[in-house]
Amino acid sequence: MKPRPVIALLLLCVVIIVTSCKKTIHYPATPLTDYFITLQVGKYVTYRLDSLNFYYYGQLDTVTSYLAKDSVEGSFTDGAGNTAWNVTRYMSDTTGQNWYTGESYTVTPSTQRIEMTEQNLRFIKLAFPMDQGFSWTGNTYLPYAPYKDFFDFSDDSHLSLGNWNYTYQSVNKAFTVGSFKLDSTLTVTQENDSINVPITDPNSFASRTYWSETYAKHIGLVYRHTEMWEYQPPTPDGTQAGYKIGFKMTMQMVDHN
Predict the structure, then answer these.
(1) Which superkingdom (predicted)?
(2) Is 15 helix (H, G, I), strand (E, B) or coil?
(3) From CA 68, how far away is CA 50, in angstroms rounded?
(4) % of residues, the chain, pLDDT over 90
(5) Which residues contact 249 (CB under 8 A, 6 or more apart)?
(6) Contact assessment for residue 175 and residue 214, using Cβ atoms and an 8 Å cutoff
(7) CB distance 250 to 225 below 8 Å
(8) CB-based contact 158:230 (threshold 8 Å)
(9) What is the DSSP letter of 233?
(10) At residue 4, does pLDDT exceed 60?
(11) In DSSP terms, which residues pair with 244 in a beta bridge?
């Protein structure tokens, strides 16, 4: 008798084993790009930015308000063969009358994450799956002390930003910013930490680290609130008063197309 049934059974087992070893890749039902700036030439989002910076041992606290218009200018293929997009930020005072070219940044989308590179700093802004509570290390590519050229920070949360865990705090939620009522947004909290805040003991060190961004479907970033500051207490001999270094910033959408 020819062993055809045995051979057929062996072939079936091989097929089952090979099939079971294949890696299953899950793709998001809603693309991550739906919640980032629309990657199409000519698309833009305009923001109002209000910032408070603490400089020079508290001697030069500066409040600044201005407009920023992020405009998609074009695409290119990066060194890894991925399609990346150039976004130029145009700046103006709050009247919006005279605009000038500011900085530019790049956006590199994929099915699993969206990366943004700004001032040579690379961030993973959004990641799959877009589930409430999901976390990822969005600053994993950042160097140690990325803001050392601007502020003399000492708190580790301001130096080791690569340890921050980005977390989806809300997904597919309604959100209002200015006059815009948005049906579907997601909010990413990048960090939320504090020491001695509010400052109840002025003779002790204090620190605040907070970074949150809200993205709207088919628009992109619509709101950002950031606080990174430290309070250094006065010296025991009284030669230096207590002071803050760092910044606070609120960025909210005022227009888009």
Answers:
(1) Bacteria
(2) helix
(3) 11
(4) 80
(5) 49, 50, 51, 52, 224, 225, 226, 227
(6) yes
(7) yes
(8) yes
(9) P
(10) no
(11) 231
| Measured distance CA(60)–CA(41) in Å, rounded | 40
Neighbouring residues of 129: CB distance < 8 A, sequence distance ≥ 6: 26, 28
Instruction: Spell out the residues 6+ positions from residue 223 whose beta carbon is closer than 8 angstroms to its own.
Output: 175, 177, 213, 214, 251, 252, 253
Q: Taking a C-beta distance cutoff of 8 angstroms, is the pair 175, 222 a contact?
A: yes
**Residue found by looking up tokens 């680290």 in the block:** 209
Q: Are 140 and 166 in contact (CB under 8 A)?
A: no
Alpha carbon 165 to its chain centroid, in Å, reads 11
Q: Are 82 and 108 in contact (CB under 8 A)?
A: yes
Q: Judge contact between 254 and 46, C-beta under 8 A.
A: yes
Report how far residue 86's alpha carbon sits from residue 107's, in angstroms, rounded to the nearest whole number.
Answer: 7
| pLDDT tens string 16-50 | 444 444 444 444 457 899 999 999 999 999 999 99
Question: Tokens 């989806």 appear where?
Answer: 168
CA dihedral 105, 29, 212, 136 (to 10 degrees): -90
Sign of the dihedral defined by the CA atoms of residues 103, 104, 105, 107, in that order: positive
CA distance 205 to 100: 40
Q: Which two tokens stand for residue 242?
A: 């207590």
